[in-house]
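We read letters as residues; the fold follows as tokens. Both lines appear below.
***
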Amino acid sequence: MILPENIPLFDVSIEQALQYAILNQADYIAFERRRMEAESQVAQAKGQRYQTTLSASYGLNNVGGTVSDLYNDPSKQQIANISFNVPLVDWGRNKAMMQTALANKRLTDYVIEQDKIIFEQEIITKVRQFEMMRLQIEITKKSDEVAQQRYNVAQNRYLIGKIDITNLNIALTEKDSAKRSYLDALKSFWTAYYDLRMLTLYDFANNQLLYTPEEK
């Protein structure tokens, strides 16, 4: 098995990671859509608050001794009607609708801000975790190499009778423990690396997007 020990040598700034996450993540884009929907509801409530109605009608009328006479020159009697309705009292209904829309907008704004903080904090945590795991790999790799050398020495000393089997087993246990720590560090590093790519849709190693932008 070949271990993924070739660690990419590049730095990821928090500002850069946030920039691409905000640009490319559908979750972040949805924040603005939710805000616009809440503002639209407020605007709709304002428009209905002083709603008026204008209507008009036009007709022709006639009289006659027979049915056929009704359709003989009906334009002699023309009727037109225009009405303009303005609500004077609505018992607070429109005001209540307005207050509800404003309350919903305030709640939406608050929830969006909290969601944005959580979203951005996740990006910041991933960047810091990525850098921490890179350092952790260096430490655990050195410990793994030292433990391997210690075990080789212990094994040689055991073969010439300088130490007993108990001390050899201790050296073996320490070697295996150091190797597991190194493998865990490698796993955590690559997990953090690809989590960061997934959250930002950006390849920081090659400085390019992970998708082809649509042409405008």
The CA atoms of residues 37 and 105 lie 9 Å apart. The mean pLDDT is 81. The longest strand covers residues 53-61.
